[in-house]
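Most newcomers find our protein records easier to grasp once they have seen one. A learned vocabulary of local backbone shapes supplies the integers on the structure line. An example says more than a description, so a record of this kind follows:
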Amino acid sequence: MNLHPIEEPVIARADHPLWRLGFRPFYLLAASFAALSVPLWVARYLGLFIGWQQVGLGWHMHEMVFGMAIAVIIGFLYTAGRTWTGLDTPRGSQLAALAALWLAGRLAMLAAPEGLAAPIDLLFLPLAGWPLYQVLTRSGNKRNLFLVGLLGLLTLANVLYHASALAWLALAPTVPVQAAILVIVVIESVIGARVIPMFTRNGAPGTEPLVHPRRDQIALALTAGASLGWTFGLAPAAVAALAVAAGCAILVRLVGWQPQRTLGVPLLWSLHLAYAWIPVGFFLLALAALGVVSSSAAFHALTVGSMAGLIIGMMTRTTLGHTGRPLKTGRAEPVMFGLVQAGAVLRLCAALGPLAWRDACLVAAAACWSVAFLIYLAVYAPYLWRARLDGRDG
């Protein structure tokens, strides 16, 4: 067994275990950024400090999607891509360079003028997506090439955001960010439909999740249709109808996966519960289209509830599995899963409840969010930093 001493250097070499597979640096960076950035935004929103003029609503929206979420997506796709193809995704110095580019983007968005921050930030997604495209095409893995296309859509949304921020385009910056969130929801829908039933069948004895390919295709088509309708401003009644249909289709799919049988398995119920926020988000999106609730309520259900819930659940599972550890949880995991979900409920209360509750709910939601990711770092950062327990590569 390849054991590393506890006294490891602060700066990791290119051959360090941290650079052996994509999930390692990107999960570490994403969790650290998540834990710090939301309290920073809330403190700025509440007027607790006046520095860092860039930390406004646009920064918060952009960085949660194109900073934190994208890091996890790339880390996951690099790790899954090697499993799908048997070929190496970026590792060593190439992976370290991509991680450094992601970090440079975050620092630029925090402290640099928009004209300088934009090109630095925009470099990451194309440069990170290209190696994935190469691996999939070399292996003939056409089934997953659509994911590279979705990364392309995310890149386009990021271009539009920066064009809006630079006043080059008469477009509200919320539009491309919301479009990017909906693209990520499509990614969640596809990947979730593949892995959650399989994980449930393997991890909860006696379950037999129902997978219906035709029903899955309908759910995906409705999800994409509702997303396009919202993004391109279809008639409110049409958007509402599509969103309700998408929410119902996703809910029917989820019920078929037997979530009620996963209550004793945190690695499973966390994924089912996070996935359940997708239909909630689409039902709220229907109400937002009709002017009944704010779009903030719908998009925070989709981001904090489903996106962050799936992110922390999948980061946990991936880290355990790909560091040679058993897929078992201790005391920390249910706490961090529960905190993310509590944060989602509190953030929804801030959006839907009385105005007098808003600030208190925001602070409580931010605290839940931050503590959840700090717990992840406390438990899982050593796993990400060190070599696999079983001595295998990765």
Observations:
- The chain has a mean pLDDT of 93.
- Residues 174-203 form the longest helix (30 residues).
